[in-house]
Amino acid sequence: MLSYQHIYHAGNLADVHKHALLCYMLSYLVQKDKPLCYIETHAGRALYDLNSEEALKTGEATAGIQYLLQAGKISSEEPAPYGNALKTLREKYGINTYPGSPLFAAHFLRKQDTAHMAELHPQEIKHLQNALKHVSRKMHIHHEDGFKMADAIIPPTPRRGILMIDPSYEIKSEYQKTARFIEKMHKKWPVGIIALWYPVLSEGLHVPMIKALKENDLCAIHHEVSFKTIKNHRLQGSGMFIINPPYRTEEHCRIIEKLFF
After folding, report:
1. 151 catalytic residue (yes or no)
2. Summary mean pLDDT of the chain
3. Rounded (5°) CA angle 210-215-221
4. DSSP code per residue over the chain
5. Is residue 57 packed enough to be buried (19+ CB in 10 Å), middle (13-18) or exposed (0-12)?
6. What is the pLDDT of residue 136?
7. pLDDT (tens digit, 9 = 90+) per residue, 3-43?
8. Which of 15, 49, 113, 166 is flagged as catalytic?
9. % of the chain exceeding 90 in pLDDT
10. Phi, psi at residue 226, to the nearest 5°?
């Protein structure tokens, strides 16, 4: 399905959770000179205008990143390194913008690194191409299904790296499909970091997916946060399931939790 557009949800609390963990993992990986590969299955448009009609219609950014900034819960230093990356990107693109995962990744990636971003939506791919056109010659953009793109690339060259997966979950079968896909990618790329984001909805649709992943006895971190400040909303929290997490990722999860109290 191609109806989902993240502009309605950009900068919400789930984005903060997801991007804070992603920024930590990337910042850890680039401490070594060895090149890495970043792969993202559902890239979106990479840069979002929080003053747009779509963003203002839902008000999710107002209750998300804008609330956290105004409350002083996010600074240029905390939670590091998300706070620093966010500050730098907002200074570059405007204080009323919010970067998606591709721009956060581009912030950390170096000349020796490679990235592959997939987006299937015909409008979103145009925004993605425009947002990344001046970023890096190794930033490969794919107008295709992200699962197919990743399956064709993995195991990547270089072998170090992260696979970021955050589908729209527009249909219920996407949860089961994602679990099977992760199991397949881990078998093909046992040393790769595989990071899955999912929404914690009132219906609990994510529960069978996480149960299936845990049954594989993977070296993984499972982290969820609840959105106590949001009432009467279907989205009750945010979850991340990370296979082969970098050193001290679990400790950083506890730091991030403080944002949502």
Report:
1. no
2. 93
3. 55
4. -----GGGTTTSHHHHHHHHHHHHHHHHHTTSSS--EEEES--TTSEEETTSHHHHHH-TTTTTHHHHHHTT---SSTTTTHHHHHHHHHHHH-TTEEE-HHHHHHHH--TT-EEEEE---HHHHHHHHHHHTTT-TTEEEE-S-HHHHHHHHPSPSSS-EEEEE-----STHHHHHHHHHHHHHHHH-TTSEEEEEEEEETT-TTHHHHHHHHTT--SEEEEEEE-TT--S-SEEEEEEEEESPPTTHHHHHHHHHGGG-
5. exposed
6. 67
7. 688 999 999 999 999 999 999 999 999 999 999 999 999 99
8. 166
9. 85
10. -105, 145
pLDDT tens profile 61-109: 999 999 999 999 998 777 889 999 999 999 999 999 999 999 999 999 9
Token code pair at residue 256: 């991030």
